[in-house]
Amino acid sequence: MRSNRTVLLVAIVVTATVFGWTSSAAAAEASQTGYPRLMQGPMVGAVAPTEVKIWVRTSGSYAVTVQYDTDPEFTMPRETNPLGIVKANDYTGVITISGLEPATEYFYRIPVTGIRDRYLEQLEPFRFKTAPPVGEAADLRIVFGSCPKYQDDRIQPIWPWVSHFDPDILLWIGDNVYADAFDPDIIREEYRRQRDIPALQPILHDISHLAIWDDHDYGLNNHDRTNPIKEDGYTVFREYWANPSYGLPDVKGVFFKYTWGTIDFFFVDDRWYRDPDEDPDVPGKTMLGSAQLEWLESELAASEAVFKVLVSGSGFSVEKGVGGDSWAAFLHERNDLFDFIRDRGISGVVLLSGDTHIGELNVIPWSDRGGYDYYDLVSSPLAQTTPDSWLERRPERRIWPAFFQSSNFGLVDFHMQGDDPYLVFQLIDIQGRSVWGSFELRASELVNGVTSWPNKVSDISRQRQENLDAGKGYYEIPVED
């Protein structure tokens, strides 16, 4: 076995090769930069059938590799080529591991300049699991949520429950940090604070993470295409996430498509091209922009997935009203998209959203228009206080009452075996409880001509809606304590 001195020498040589230093310069630099280590991470990013991305942030300009093996004892480890980390990227980097086997669990560790990390060396090896082959029916468990606000909650006790349910993927669907600043270094600082939450660490290390932004991690509250620092915010977002892609080569944005077996996820960018919410909602007003919308419609039309999940930071329902910071201010564009799905006979569309600071399960009954019913699964907040502004808001239809008692996350299990695949949605609270029970939605219910929502509405939501339709107060039905 090589001595520590030999390991250090190899590390210096590798670093010198990556950065083009002479050996004497590398030795001098090593003596001045302190112990090479990770400051944040590692975080598992996008997992594909034969590839995975690992995000890291180091303590300096070092060479980082990933050692990985299917055996936690690392009896036959492989190692990636070194990735040079530089200050210009805030010492962040994404290492891509290729040539993996589909649907396989791997264990990994992170050497920095060839040396085991001082912060991580006492921990068990981390793990990731590759995705199944595209087109192969495979079950999936996801967790999704939005709005963890470090300023309100520095402990964030929701995370141990995420660990408990052990999802395959965690979807961060906006307001992932509350940057609310015009200085990109402050945005970075908010990311680092969030990444340092102790209870979040095992989730970062072992679960795949995919992310889009909403207003508070894009700019200021309710910011749109006029955000003066959108370019800086875009740079920071790409530094701190490890998505499969960001927009298109000629179309900027954080939108992307992700596939797991026979499930397609379409993550949309609801800020970069967004017209101001308060503009009149007339044809041509846009949230997505023409190029992103064209991409989305083209991908939906081409998708052969059983479920096609549209992921948006802004909620899809009308509940925020005219000029509200949601799709309610863009109903022409939303409705045209829903009609496109109907007219092209695209089945299996489900909606995920956040931002409302309450948990919700709503439905937009497009079966009334010859299509099928669009269910909006909503989780918010992951960590912060809940306001009461939602009390006067009315979506098209509530399936279950709004949940406002605590932080929460959405848990969705996709059961893809059999003739009629289905998903089960639960909202999990800060005590690990399923606040409503389980909501089941089958692929056969997401086909033009099928009306499914009347049999799914809870009794209390039906009573409240009937009250409202009769001109009474929505909450006049007594509720048991």
Short description:
This protein has 481 residues and is an alpha+beta fold. It has helices spanning 4-19, 23-33, 159-165, 184-195, 201-206, 215-218, 230-240, 290-302, 331-343, 459-469; strands at residues 38-47, 52-58, 63-64, 67-69, 78-79, 83-84, 92-97, 105-109, 111-112, 115-116, 126-129, 140-145, 169-173, 208-212, 256-260, 263-267, 307-312, 349-353, 359-365, 373-378, 397-403, 408-415, 422-429, 439-442. Residues 1-30 have low confidence and may be disordered.
Describe the overall structure.
With 481 residues, the protein is α+β, with helices and mostly antiparallel strands. Helix content is 22%, strand content 25%. It is built from 10 helices and 24 strands. The protein has helices at 4-19, 23-33, 159-165, 184-195, 201-206, 215-218, 230-240, 290-302, 331-343, 459-469, and strands spanning 38-47, 52-58, 63-64, 67-69, 78-79, 83-84, 92-97, 105-109, 111-112, 115-116, 126-129, 140-145, 169-173, 208-212, 256-260, 263-267, 307-312, 349-353, 359-365, 373-378, 397-403, 408-415, 422-429, 439-442. The strands form 6 sheets. A 7-stranded mixed beta sheet has the order 15-16-17-18-20-19-21. The N and C termini lie far apart (67 Å). 47% of the residues are buried.
Keywords:
10 helices; 7-stranded mixed β-sheet; 24 strands; 481 residues
Query: What does the largest sheet look like?
Result: 7 strands, mixed
**Strand tally:** 24
- Order of strands, main sheet, comes to 15-16-17-18-20-19-21
Q: Rg, please?
A: 23 Å
Instruction: Please report the number of helical segments.
Output: 10
Structural class call reads: alpha+beta
The fraction of residues assigned to DSSP E strands is 25-35%
Proportion in helices: 10-25%
Distance between the termini: 67 Å
Q: Can you give the mean pLDDT?
A: 92
Low-confidence segments, ≥5 residues, pLDDT <50? 1-30
- The outline comes out as globular
